[in-house]
Design goal:
- By secondary structure, this protein is mainly α.
- It has one domain (11-275).
- The protein is built from 14 helices and no strands.
- The protein has helices at residues 5-11, 19-30, 32-46, 50-59, 61-64, 66-83, 88-101, 108-129, 136-152, 162-176, 181-196, 203-211, 216-222, 229-248.
- The chain is globular.
- The chain starts with a helix and ends in a 54-residue tail after the last helix.
């Protein structure tokens, strides 16, 4: 297979009708490492919205059980991408997501914002650091994929295009990013989790490198001191160099799913998708999102 042969195949497909397959080709074969990093950043930046960050802190799931909650989130989203919306495994994952989300009160606006991060951040990351930029087919397909996921989750008034998602994300962050002490605790715990994946002596370096990838509004919301311009430039340059090196490698022939990532550590003996996630008890910690709206049975997986 030639380096751009898969991209040629994607361009021959229908970006709406074939959206799940195009998204799978892009996320599991073309950019698996980049998609993992981009979706981590997507979820992380939602903490800077106080209504989200505070609720995450109140559950204690991301501050006291960071690895397990990271793994469950990754594996549930991964199951939908790997198996599809109609397959048993994919429907089970969506059902678990919806069951957890109904346990907490979060606005439709926050739900749409979180969904927008999944659409927008991978495109921004890959265009900046990937071995090539995303094609228009991939952008449209990823947008349609997450629109479908959003419908299964019962989210109303979902944007229709990537550009609408991007406008929503930018305007929502401008209006809602703000300092919150509890949200900062969640952010610190997440940075600590990411550092824990590597040898302990590297932890301070990895924290600084992660901060170098954050934009100024995000740093300001969490009240982090920005790394120096030199450090920021070096970190971002290193990622661009990595992308150029990947471009020289033979294309991946076997899909790589998030469940295969070394960062996923909680289930060395395997897992059942139906057992992933929390089952919150009133007054105790659990998943931080609730869907209080009436879900249409044709859209949402109960």
């Amino acid at each position: 297979m030639k380096r751009f042969e898969r991209l040629d195949r994607i361009r021959r497909m229908d970006p709406v009708a074939d959206a799940p397959e195009i998204y799978r080709l892009s996320a599991a074969l073309e950019f698996p490492w980049d998609y993992t990093r981009a979706l981590e950043l997507a979820l992380y930046r939602t903490y800077a919205v106080p209504s989200i960050g505070r609720l995450l802190a109140e559950t204690a799931e991301l501050t006291e059980r960071s690895q397990r909650r990271y793994d469950d989130t990754v594996l549930l989203l991964d199951a939908v991408m790997e198996h599809g919306f109609a397959a048993r495994e994919g429907r089970t994952a969506i059902r678990r997501i919806n069951q957890m989300h109904r346990s907490y009160d979060i606005s439709d606006d926050d739900m749409r914002y979180v969904l927008s991060t999944f659409v927008v951040m991978p495109r921004r990351w890959i265009d900046a650091y990937g071995w090539r930029r995303m094609s228009r087919h991939e952008i449209v397909a990823a947008t349609e994929y997450y629109r479908t996921l959003g419908r299964h989750m019962g989210i109303p008034d979902i944007p229709e295009t990537f550009e609408e998602f991007e406008a929503l994300l930018d305007s929502y962050e401008k209006a809602h990013f703000a300092w919150d002490e509890r949200a900062r605790q969640v952010s610190d715990a997440t940075l600590g989790l990411m550092a824990s994946w590597y040898p302990r002596p590297l932890a301070p370096l990895l924290r600084t490198a992660t901060l170098a990838l954050l934009d100024e509004p995000l740093l300001r919301a969490f009240r982090y001191e920005a790394p120096s311009a030199t450090v920021t430039a070096l970190v971002r340059c290193a990622l661009r160099v990595r992308g150029r090196l990947v471009r020289l490698l033979p294309p991946r022939r076997v899909p790589h799913f998030a469940r295969q990532n070394p960062e996923v550590k909680s289930y060395p003996d395997g897992y059942d998708t139906a057992d992933l996630g929390t089952r919150p008890v009133p007054g105790m910690g659990g998943c931080p999102v609730r869907q209080v709206r009436q879900l249409k049975p044709t859209d949402a997986v109960e």
